[in-house]
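**Tokenised fold:**
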Amino acid sequence: MENKSLDLWSSYKELNQFVETCISRPINGVAISLSKTLAKYKHNFLRVMKNAPKNGRSRQIVESKANGNAATLPQEIVDEAVTLSNMYNLDEQVALDLLCIAQQKCADYPGIARGPVAILLYYDAHFALAATLKMLVQAHQGLRWESNCLADVQKVVSKFVNELVTDGLFEAIFAALSSMNLTREITLLQQNRGLGGAYHHHMVTTLYTGITKTLAEIVLLYSAQCGLPAQPLLALVNHLKGTQPELDAQGGVDDVSLALLMAALYSIDVSIVQEKDDIENIHTFLPILQEDNLIGRVHSELVNPQVTWACPGPSLRM
């Protein structure tokens, strides 16, 4: 499967469909293709919610398409591409590609202009990447559930996900969650005339909150299935320190905060030992039992008197 570096939306959507097919359908020989494809996108998974950044060369190429007698695009779409690039620190050619796809898909979004459609495609692309990663974690070998995928596919998936974790996946997720704020995002869209009517506002909100929820669920699923190694676990504790949960009308904690809190609890839960016969195999999946004094390090972080928690109540102090 080709990694179309300039086609953000199509490449992430196709990756999602490809991974789903590999995991859900027993196709012999697909593991090799899956391994190669995942390797191509490893950098993208580790840079969750980050884009190929804008650069001068790409801007020159895009702007040249509306200049001179050989102009191939109207100035309006080039200006929109530059605006989109500035909004999301996005490579100008990638931004232009999003707008061109949006132009083709405007019929699917009646009453919404090309620019706001491109915004939806941008968020949908990142949601697709997060959803793909969630599928991979769900197919990971572990303690609490079994995947229906082929054994060689599960081996490829488990190895790849573990490599991502070692290379800082969860730290990247926590950084993304810390930087994401729906109110700030809506303001950005309003300032750049990227927000359509009520329906467009609803779709943006749904996609954006879907991304944050999916990222948190990735941490929860991995923690439940495999436990969290020391570095990701301590990073999670540090993230929770700075988290102020949002409460609904009934006083319930928001989905993201709840998922991360449960991930922390699963990471120190060893009750599964009492439920399984293969004790030695269980130890290989529980870092809390493998890594020296990990529980002591976590406890020290939790009770450190020099650290002020954003939410000082018992709900985030475990």
